[in-house]
Design a protein that fits this description.
The chain has 69 residues and is mainly α. The protein has four helices and no strands.
C-alpha cells in the first residue's frame, strides 16, 4: 500500500529541513528532499565530515540508467 499524501509531505518536509540545516541551498534541499532514492544520512555524514554540499550531492547522486551507457 501507498503512504497517505500527508505522511509523504511530512517526510519531505523533514528531509528538506535537515538538508537546509546542514547548509544545502533551498533549491537543492527541495529537489533532494523529494527524491527518496537520495541517501539523506549519507549526504549529512559527508557534509559533517567537511565535504561541500554540492560535492556530496555529486558523490551520492543516484545513477540514472541513461548515464550508465
Amino acid at each position: 500500500g501507498a503512504r497517505p499524501p500527508e505522511r509523504d509531505a511530512a517526510v519531505v518536509s523533514w528531509r528538506r529541513q535537515r538538508l537546509l540545516d546542514a547548509g544545502f541551498s533551498l533549491k537543492s534541499s527541495e529537489k533532494l528532499a523529494r527524491d527518496l532514492r537520495v541517501d539523506l544520512h549519507g549526504l549529512l555524514d559527508l557534509v559533517q565530515g567537511g565535504c561541500p554540499p554540492a560535492l556530496a550531492v555529486r558523490i551520492l547522486a543516484p545513477v540514472d540508467n541513461e548515464s550508465r551507457r
